[in-house]
Request: fold
Amino acid sequence: MTTTTAPASAARILVVDDELGPRESLRMLLKPAYQITTADSGRAALQLLPQIRVMITAYASLETVKLALTHGAFEYLIKPFSRQDLEDVVRRALLRRQADLGTRGEVATLVEEMRRLSAKTRELEEVARRDATEQSLRVTQLSIVREISRAIVGHLAMDDVMAAVSAQLHAALGYDSVGLTPSEPAAHADDAGCLVVCSIRDAEGPLGYLVADNRASGRPVDPRERELLEMLSEYLAIALRNSHLYGEIADTKRSLEQLIASAGDAIISVDADDRVDGWNPAAERVFGRAAAEVTGRRITDLLPEREYRAARERLARGAAMEVFETTLTVDRETPAALAVTLSGLRNRQGGLDGLIAIVRDITAQREVENQLQQSEKLTALGQLAGGIAHDFNNLLQAILGYAQLMKANPDNPELLQRSLSVVESAALDGSETVRRIQQFARLRPDERFMPVDVNHIVEDAVAITRPRWEEKIAHDSRPMDLRLDLRAKQHIHGRSAALTEVMTNLVLNAMDAMPEGGTLSIASKDVADAVVVVVTDTGIGMPEQVRRRVFEPFFSTKGESGSGLGLSMAYSIIRRHGGDIRVESEPGRGATFTLTVPIAREAPAPPPAPSTPPPRRAARILLVDDEPQVLSALAELLQAAGHEVSAAASGAAALKIYVPGRYDVVLTNVGMAGMNGWEVAERVRAVDAKVPVVFITGWGLREEERARLSALRVQRCLFKPVRPDELDAAVQAAIASV
Reply:
């Protein structure tokens, strides 16, 4: 076998012939264009066949040709053949070979692609199987989450939530146990695959741990289930917080229910239609009706409709609460006093969705208050009596002392004159004390208001208190300084005597407040439509608890030396003048009293021009009084004035001697035993409609008695003690009116 090398790119041809000549001739013919390989036998050709593209044979029998074609031969040449025939056949064979090789390449490529597709298909099938598994797991997870979410929403108690979660996880995933622990459980390295611990926390901090435990069975927990458990831990965090809130709400609800049930006051809830929908045990006690009896009824069947409607309207306008009192009389032997407090139940828009009524039975409280008021009245009367006794004992001491001095020294004119002055002054002071008490008790009519110069009031008060002022300086050797700054120009509308009493009281109190001496400053000024008077001392001052009570009647810090009426009377007088009085004080820093009184709207009237007084007339007077000493004193005063007096010691005695036309004036005391002055006036009027009647009283006169005075045509009412000039002026006015 011989091989002739040709260019590497040329086609390779195997020439098989058992004869050397034909074999070599063919090789030589084809050598210029092809790589030629020769074989001298069929066996040798078969060994070389995988390397050869075209095979040529020259075996020329017909049977051989048929067999060759049958077994896939491309073409045949019968010896002898020309070179051109040989080249044509080889060329066609190569072309066919190339075509065959191309087809087989496509098939191989297709097979390879099919193999790749098959591998891809198997890969996709594997992915699909994995996706199906994941999808199944997701479906399972979602199913578990859905069911557990329902359990979490449906149960607020944590025990119920955990029972539902454990049951679902056990049924769906087959865990040995699922639980909630407050602290993270201890675990060994060998337990990692069988134990999953997920922290449960929210924004406020850790709440516990969700534990899925398969350590008992040793079955590992699928790592992909951790995501499910972590998701559940988030749900459980919400559930735990809600459970805590639910517990707090439940505790609060129980506490409120117990509070409402044990409350001493009736607590009633009212809906938007004003119907009762809540009724606690106290309401049953207060109203005497069971809850079943009143639920659904209108609240106005229990509370007065007018007060309830008015309160509800104010609540609807935004009021926080409304309070009123009423009296319950239905189905009760004795009326019950009730205090009602209404509060609104508001919606998010601020409207009323209903009301809460808290009703308190204050019957016992009112009874206690009435008893306390009565006790306070008795205490006040006792204090009043003590204060009056103190003041009058001082006056009586002066009167008695100087009266005894006069009896012991009848020949000493100077002592007599001084003693009489003191006695008269003491009597006038006593009269002023009585007048203040009567005004306080509203038993004495106020005098007519006139334009008053405040500066004159201050100067009069200073003049009245100057002897006390000078006495304090002389006897106590304490430095006392008085400073006046009176700049008010406007007049006020009032009563000079009452205002002088106020100012005198303030000056005396200031002196008492400066036991170690000091400075008293009094200033007046015009401020807008008022006159302001400021009285300031540099004394000991007063604490806040005293300052708040300083104007209360009978409140005193002077012990037995004070009645507690001075500042209360001053307050009352200033208020009657339409003004205000305030005090500012601190311990050790003195006190400042500020009086503000509105100015007079009318100019002060000019002093009346001197005129000739009407001539005095002597009158025939029937004098009636059941006090012998008073009767004797008044009779002598009237007789000293030139009148003719018939004195009667009782109303009955006066009526026995009364004859129409015999007397010009009937002067009778009001408060008498047996027949009082009112009855005397009625009896006299029954027989004589014209005779003037004048009352004199030590009791005072109530406001409601003024109409009765007018009906009886009583000319005037004099208040004891009466000065001689006042008594004579009343008689002259009475006889002049006829």
